[in-house]
Write a structure and sequence with these properties.
The complex is a heterodimer of chains A (169) and B (222). Chain A is an all-alpha fold. Chain A is 67% helix and 0% strand. The chains are: A mainly alpha (169), B mainly alpha (222).
Chain lengths: 169, 222
Amino acid sequence: MSNRLPWWMGGILMSGLLLLTFSIYGADRAIGASTYVPYVASLIFDLDPEKYSYIAHIKNSGSWEGVMLLGVLFGGFITSVFITKSFRFSLIPTAWKKYKNQSVLSRLLWSFFSGFIMIIGARLAGGCTSGHFMSGMSQLAISAMIFGGVVMITLVITGKLFYNTKGKN
Amino acid sequence: MADVIFVVNESNTTVTDRVFQMVENVINMEHGSVALVFLIGVIFGGIIQYTRVDKFEKIAGFSMLKDTIIPKMLFLTVGLTSIGLYFMIDAGQAHYHVKPIILQGLIIGGILFGISMAILGKCPGTGPVSIAEGRIDVLIGAIGGLFGGLVFTLYYDDFFKPLMGESLGNSILTDFFSGNEETTALVFGVLVIIISIAIPKLELFDEADLSQLPDDQRANKT
């Protein structure tokens, strides 16, 4: 068995999964993957939903995505062990070493910082790559097109400024 | 210590109790059984892992314009789904779940999201897949994300909600072409599929992954 699927096969399968999730025979909702983060945070830190309106606001979506997340972790683990054979513990990506630096501490600090602002950003916009880009744009939503455009532009500008790619292939 | 900073639930539950509560919430909703929702997650994680789009080399690689698998697969997914979904909704087999146009939230949030996606090389959907394949740096990113979620929750009413601004409605593209909804949806879908095919295919490989495979299975050789 091949250890990876081509992009077009991935697109077809992902489209099938989105349609199944949207369908009334499936979950009758969109796939999202950022509401679970503040929801799981509220479970871990035991926040009182009566005190914080946001938890009450995201209770349903957060729970749904929380259960989906458990599936994602399971599916990702099984696939990485048995199919892609890419399971291994690592602290720093190969391309980070090539285009940024060799320091594990630098990678971990930047990871923590970027994880922090990523969730603030996703919750401000009300969605992420899954909820806005894939599910939102598939519904022709204007909100998703604005988000997608801003993210694509910012992503490429950040990549240019943050990494040192000059003279490296 | 913690309860000095924020208000915790008074009904002394453990994390396990609260996770069971989460599952119970899903049982009480009409959005698929717990098994189906879990299965959707398994397939989602499986597709992302099997296509390798969770990799730093794919997402950060795209930010450096050295890898285009992410936009190609994303646009193809959107193009196919938009056409399928339009006809499903038309036939009453699905519903719209459109997010509001909160302009400030979308722009400020999109900028923060784009910056962090380039640096972390993951997004909230692909991150867990990387953690499941042993990436410790992404786990640290997820812990940062949990604190981001905590801060967002704590200051939602006072700071973040006003920052997001008012909603300008839930418009979709076809609203601007009334009378030609079907054509608009089809043209959009086909156009996006053409874009996905037209984007030149660039790939940045990770030698650390390739070196674990037999020579004839290395993706850069096939």
